[in-house]
Write a structure and sequence with these properties.
With 327 residues, the chain is an alpha/beta fold. It is built from 10 helices and 13 strands. Helix content is 33%, strand content 23%. Strand 12 and strand 13 form a beta hairpin.
């Protein structure tokens, strides 16, 4: 039995932070950001009393509405996030409470920008095992909470948002999550991390003053690793499933940098018209980028029965992976 996606939805905060807005607070320019990354604007959740669970709850409610089911029917909620409301309880438990999914168990999964692919693979296994019939998989981030808005190297890249999917048993073995190849290499951990706030550097005046509670990265190094790993994994998944470029309906890549996306499409030999891109509007929303893309393709009616999708990601850890999904 395969796990099929039976509903998708996204939830973005209303406030828009444009490159022009950033020009006013940083030594940067719209031209630099657009040409290096492809980003024009990103969404920001400004309300300090709202966090990732608020965004994920919005996506979850919309998924239930679209599928026309009650929250009590959900068996499991997995939230992929690197910006949970709190270290504990999990953001997934807060979403479970907010939507009233009282028959579901719930947990967070920490896979950074690859979190959604890790979570989708995990959720699919519960369906494939036959033990669960309705699994909500959500990727959500309030990345603005991890940003140092005086650090132009990093803060221009990220935005806030959430999106997710409902997984259910496929009617046949021809649709759903067909293949997943996931990887990790902890040797890359120091190049992209937020050192503060965990048990190594708990919050003290010193750790806050040292800016350990902000996302920290070696952007150039991460770029080089990402561009190779995403292209390699995309080709690997294609070959493993006997697909050539003509068979692919859409590449749905993590949205970190438009140049990484273009390099991946080029290596796969597919036209940019078949690549889901929204980095210009949302920036990098980490675990939310891929489900936001899926929701937008779905809303636009571009996904029809039998569409072949390749999902690929790379992120902190390092983590990376690729999924072959048949709609
Ligand atoms: N505005 C203006 N100048 C800037 C800015 C900015 N916002 N940010 C950096 N610069 C400057 C730097 O200070 C540096 O100046 P220097 O040469 O005087 O020291 C210069 O621009 C660097 O320019 P480039 O080398 O052309 O920058 P590059 O092409 O490497 O692009 C970028 C930088 C966009 C950060 C790129 O390396 C990148 O996208 N890396 C991936 C990082 C990433 O996406 N991480 C997210 C998590 S992982 C993931 O999601 C894949």
């Amino acid at each position: 039995m395969k796990a099929a996606i039976t509903a998708t939805a996204k939830f973005l905060p209303d406030d828009v932070l444009t490159n022009q807005d950033l020009e006013k607070i940083l030594d940067t320019s719209d031209e630099w950001i657009r040409t290096r990354t492809g980003i024009r604007e990103r969404r920001i959740l400004k309300d300090p009393d709202k966090a990732t669970s608020y965004l994920c709850t919005g996506a979850a409610r919309s998924i239930l509405d679209k599928r026309g089911i009650r929250a009590e029917e959900i068996d499991l909620i997995i939230v992929a996030t690197m910006s949970p409301d709190m270290l504990f309880p999990s953001t997934a438990c807060l979403v479970q409470r907010n939507i009233g999914a009282l028959n579901a168990w719930a947990f967070d999964l920490s896979g950074a920008c690859s979190g959604f692919l890790y979570a989708l693979t995990t959720g699919a296994q519960f369906i494939e095992a036959g033990t669960h019939r309705k699994v909500l998989v959500i990727g959500g981030e309030k990345m603005s909470a991890l940003m140092d808005y005086t650090d132009r190297n990093t803060c221009v890249l990220f935005g806030d948002g959430a999106a997710g999917v409902l997984l259910e048993p496929s009617q046949d073995d021809e649709h759903g999550v067909m293949d997943a190849k996931l990887h990790a290499d902890g040797r890359g951990s120091e190049h992209l991390c937020m050192p503060g706030g965990g048990s190594l550097h708990p919050a003290t005046h010193e750790t806050v003053d040292s800016k350990l509670h902000f996302l920290n990265q070696d952007g150039k190094l991460v770029f080089k690793s990402a561009v190779t790993a995403m292209a390699d994994i995309a080709v690997d998944v294609m070959e493993h499933n006997g697909l050539d470029s003509d068979d692919i309906s859409y590449l749905v890549p993590h949205q970190a940098n438009k140049r990484i996306i273009q390099a991946t499409a080029e290596r796969m030999g597919i036209d940019m018209g078949k690549v889901a891109i929204n980095i210009d509007r949302y920036g990098n929303t980490s675990a939310a980028t891929i489900p936001i893309c899926l929701a937008e393709l779905d809303e636009a009616g571009k996904l029809t029965s039998g569409s072949n999708l390749i999902l690929v990601s790379f992120g902190a850890g390092y983590t990376w992976g690729g999924i072959y999904l048949k709609w």
